[in-house]
Design brief:
Strand order of the largest sheet: 1-14-5-2-4-3
Strand content: 25-35%
Oligomer: single chain
């Protein structure tokens, strides 16, 4: 019921969401800076998950291209995992095409049916929808749980670039020595770290400046919202990870 001009911050919620998306994406895509002029200025970049696996982990190329080759490709990956930590449980995040090829390959392993379309492991009945997708399977001494990764399918992100098909991430935790604490601690193979203190943390920090909307920090006749995040992704024991390209 009020009239006149009102101050408001346009799309602040959308801006915050975009910042959080970019911050999360940097954990995946970040690269260390090789340009010495930038590193001398204090800009060093960060090692995202893709960069960490590429430099310290395993990279499998031309896998999951067709259902007929998928099992043979996967067995080669298992042999490589045997040489590393041999982590029993692993998560697989795939793009849509690779995920479907893996489903078809797993279904063909148990293809002892006649005139049907069931993979034979879901106890499908006429009252339920036919399920032709696998969420988990066991091969050799390893358990794998797989899912579509929306990030690889989204045409506004990695879906526009088809060079990466997915990633295998070991499940569970491993022990690592923490120099700050001076002792061994257990952490997930993939986790984020950020600076923090008793007064606050820098995982996600925001503040408002200006002279309107309740902010009285300057003579600026406007309101500005600032966002700051200082964190990195830790890819622990990268030799147990596999990047599919």
């Amino acid at each position: 019921g009020q009239t006149g001009y009102l101050w408001y911050l346009k799309a602040e919620g959308d801006t915050r969401t975009r910042f959080e998306d970019y911050s999360e994406m940097s954990m995946i895509e970040a690269e260390t800076i090789a340009n010495t002029s930038l590193t001398g200025a204090g800009v060093e970049g960060s090692e995202g998950m893709f960069a960490a696996i590429t430099s310290r982990g395993n990279v499998a190329t031309n896998v999951f291209d067709t259902p007929s080759d998928t099992i043979a490709d996967f067995d080669l990956i298992l042999k490589e995992l045997d040489k590393q930590g041999a982590i029993e449980e692993n998560m697989i995040f795939l793009d849509r095409s690779s995920n479907l090829n893996l489903d078809d390959a797993l279904g063909a392993v148990n293809a002892n049916y006649s005139g049907g379309t069931s993979f034979g492991v879901f106890q499908n009945s006429q009252e339920m929808a036919l399920n032709l997708g696998f969420t988990g399977f066991r091969r050799g001494s390893y358990d794998f749980y797989k899912t579509d990764w929306k990030y690889l399918n989204d045409q506004s992100t990695r879906g526009l670039i088809s060079d990466i098909k997915g990633v295998l991430v070991p499940a569970g935790t491993s022990s690592v020595y923490d120099q700050s604490l001076g002792k061994n601690i257990r952490r997930p193979f993939l986790h984020t770290r950020y600076r923090s203190s008793q007064s606050g943390d820098r995982n996600m920090k925001s503040w408002t400046t200006g002279s309107v909307g309740g902010a009285t920090t300057s003579d600026l006749d406007a309101m500005e919202v600032h966002y700051l995040s200082e964190k990195c992704l830790v890819t622990q024991a990268a030799n147990n990870f596999v990047l599919f390209k």
